[in-house]
Amino acid sequence: MALRALLLALVAQASGLKIGASHITHPAAVAGVGRRSALAGAAAAALLQLPLPAFAQTNEEKAQAQIRETSAALHKLLDHKKEFVAAYAEGKGDRFPVPSAVPFTVFQTLEKTAEPEFMAIAIDYAEASRGARDLIKLAKLTKQPVEVSIKETGKPRRTAVTEYGSAEGSGLSTAEEYAERAAAELLAASICLDEAIKVMVAK
Question: How far apart are CA 132 and CA 115, in angstroms?
Answer without folding.
Answer: 27
